[in-house]
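Handout, page 2. Input:
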Amino acid sequence: MSKETRGYGTMIVSVVGILGAVLAALVGDLFDWRVAYFVGGAMGLGLLVLRFKACESGMFQGIKEQVVKRGSFLLIFKSKKNTLRYLSCILIGVPLWFVVGILDTFSPEFGKVLKMVEIPKASTAVMCAYIGISLGGLVSGCLSQVFKNRRAVTAMFMGLNAAFILVYLLNPSPSLGVFYMTCLGLGFASGYWTLFVTIAAEQFGTNIRATVATTVPNFVRGALVPLTLSFQYLKNHYGIIEGASIVGCVCIGLAFIALAGVEETYGKSLNYVE
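Output:
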């Protein structure tokens, strides 16, 4: 796609992919686990067939004739500038997994502390979050194209995310419906996942772009391990609401600092190598 319209492409791929989590929740609730495994496996095999049909981009084909390293993870850390950019891309995405991995996953525990009459189910909270992430990805992707600015829209959604986290943690005795709507709102505000992946991919040259685009989201997911350990430690010492508040503040604060350190990439030519 052209450099002016490629944001729509990443938006569509990301939003449809995230809806897979919603489908998984529905299949898991409606069918036996064996059926769920069959559906997931069949979709994976279907994806494999489709990927055989996908063509390489012209830019990637072009660098095959150049004497340049391709896909080298170590190339990312060859310079201080690249290292900082890479770490910044990871930090931008960490609040997303704080929301899904802690606030939604531990929603029954939060429900008890918030003195809810009906205790929420983690699976339903996660499903609501992913529906919101899909909607948020669609809106944030479109806004970044309309305003021709990825960083500003990402900052706006991160601020919205912080606001919904406060509502989630500080709203005493919410009804079950209000709680799930808050999870939906948290997911919507976390919909900048689409922009986060796009920004990360657009920061680096063609020879390591795929490496960055695949490893950055996985490091963000992996960050859930230290996030959970920190949350568990703080929860045991200060309480579940206080622990989540501290971890959330640190995540969002670092994400804003990291966002300020990456360049705006809307319309940037990607036909270069590192």
